[in-house]
Write a structure and sequence with these properties.
The longest helix is centred in the middle third of the chain and has 37 residues. It contains 10 helices and no strands.
Length: 253
């Protein structure tokens, strides 16, 4: 809050020459609130680095603009040093919040992150569908209440037409489904979703190194496959990099 107040005062003092004083200080508050909102989004997406990255970049851009405005205000008062130190208030504030977010960010295993994303998509889909159904039901109730005879007549016509189409479709013989040639040639089964209850690659590697510090990369790959992870082209490289993170001394060997 102190950073917001300081930036608001500086930017407001810079802009009051152009617009009304009240609007100038409101605009000054927006400079700090912009990077603070980006921090809030980054906090909400702290478990998904890919989704948090745009908010992180936008936050640093907004911070740079805010710092430039504060420094410019100091320059107009012939106090560039004061403007520079004042600009660092927002930098220190955002830096502390960034460290806090980094401390609470929990990197998820690839399989767990995929499962979390799927659950979020399902919940978002249900929420969107329920909101659309609620709006349709409200509109239908409103039309029934105020539409009068015209609405009831249109509803009856549409219902009769839909009933006729249903009867025609049930009377016609069912047509065999058309299967594209690409699907006929495709023989590989669709891979199943990664199970949430299996051990992660990092956990398998950590356990194997704890039992045998000299275990080879090939044996680690075998252990990962036996834990239920599917074989893929970059599996060996992923296992090797995970082993280096678990035991940095392997790099020297």
């Amino acid at each position: 809050m102190l950073a917001v107040a300081a930036t608001t005062a500086s930017v407001g003092g810079l802009l009051f020459r152009l617009i009304r004083t009240e609007l100038a200080y409101v605009a000054g508050a927006i400079f700090s609130l912009a990077w603070m909102c980006c921090l809030a989004v980054e906090w909400l997406e702290r478990v998904d680095p890919a989704r948090a990255k745009p908010a992180r970049i936008a936050g640093w851009v907004a911070l740079a603009i805010s710092m430039g405005a504060v420094f410019t205000y100091g320059t107009t008062l012939h106090e560039p040093w004061a403007g520079g130190f004042g600009a660092c208030i927002d930098l220190l504030s955002k830096g502390l919040w960034a460290l806090l977010i980094r401390h609470h960010a929990v990197p998820l295993d690839e399989g767990v992150a995929h499962w979390v994303t799927q659950q979020e998509q399902k919940l978002a889909g249900r929420e969107l569908l329920s909101a659309r159904l609620l709006r349709l039901n409200r509109n239908a109730a409103y039309q029934r209440a105020v539409g009068g005879r015209e609405f009831r007549a249109a509803d009856a016509i549409l219902n009769s037409a839909e009933t006729a189409r249903t009867l025609d479709a049930s009377a016609a013989p069912p047509a065999p489904p058309v299967v594209p040639e690409e699907e006929k040639k495709q023989e590989e089964p669709v891979p199943s979703v990664t199970e949430i209850d299996r051990l992660s690659i990092a956990a398998v590697v950590r356990t194997a190194i704890a039992h045998n510090a000299k275990v080879s990369d090939a044996d680690l790959v075998t252990a990962v496959k036996e834990a239920g992870h599917p074989d893929r082209p970059n599996l060996a490289d992923t296992v090797r990099r995970t082993a280096l993170r678990v035991d940095p001394s392997r790099k020297a060997s």
